[in-house]
Design a protein that fits this description.
Layout lengths: L2 H17 L4 H12 L9 H14 L3 E5 L5 H7 L7 E6 L2 H13 L6 E5 L2 H10 L5 E6 L6 H10 L1 E10 L15 H15 L3 E10 L2 E10 L2
Parallel strand pairs: 1-2, 1-4, 2-3, 4-5
Antiparallel strand pairs: 5-7, 6-7
Helix pairs in contact: 2-5, 3-4, 6-7, 7-8
Length: 224
């Protein structure tokens, strides 16, 4: 581990201990995800707390998450919802979804949350066909190749004032390479360009360092 990474880890540990301490449900969600062999790509605790705060600031009643993994970020988001709120999360892998459902049930969020299995680009049109109420917040944290398509669907399923969050947009700095052959970089750049150019979106992106390494996220508000 580099000296810089150790420092980033130490700062994240301090922030998390002070401002975003984990409880048994969150700790167990990570433990069970690890035991099931899920990849270690969940958000950091302080990032999870940020998602919760964003949802609370929004006064969110309906949240859409694209990319569930083991449900760790889903728990943070779900805790921002009122008792009659609703959270729908899409997960490609059925095994991951089962782990997430157990974690959400342990956290007492199974009544207001639903994990749907399958490719998100197949699940999103089906969701749209249900003519759901607009979502107040959309968190995009799935395969990066399809980020621009996820942003487009988020626009269709939200309302003016809704918030769209796209995770992992720095790609180790690769996002600056206009000639990159990396599909994840290309997808991320296309999503950022869509946010920049779309008349109904106002957004920005922020670089971060921490226990998850060098990364960042984009934040966009849906305009009238």
């Amino acid at each position: 581990m580099s000296e810089s990474q150790q420092l980033w880890d130490d700062v994240d540990d301090y922030f998390t201990t002070l401002l975003a301490p984990e409880d048994e449900a969150l700790t167990a969600a990570l433990r069970d995800s690890d035991a099931a062999g899920l990849p270690h790509i969940n958000v950091a605790p302080n990032q999870g707390k940020l998602l919760q705060l964003l949802a609370e600031i929004q006064g969110a009643r309906r949240i859409l998450e694209i990319g569930t993994l083991g449900g760790y970020s889903t728990i943070w988001l779900g805790r921002a919802l009122p008792q009659d709120g609703r959270l729908i999360s899409f997960e490609y892998d059925a095994r991951h979804a089962e782990v997430a459902r157990r974690n959400l049930a342990r956290a007492g969020l199974d009544r207001i949350s639903e994990v749907r299995v399958g490719p998100a680009l197949e699940s999103l049109p089906k969701l749209a066909d249900e003519r759901p109420e607009p979502f107040d917040l959309v968190f995009i944290d799935a395969d990066k190749v399809n980020n621009p398509h996820y942003v487009e669907w988020a626009l269709k399923l939200t309302r003016p004032g809704s918030l769209i969050v796209v995770d992992n947009v720095v790609r180790g700095g690769g996002v600056t390479d206009a000639g990159s052959a990396d599909p994840s970089v290309r997808g991320t750049r296309s999503a950022l360009e869509l946010i920049a150019e779309h008349p109904k979106l106002s957004g920005t992106a922020v670089q971060t360092v921490g226990s998850k390494g060098y990364d960042g996220f984009a934040l966009a508000r849906v305009l009238p």
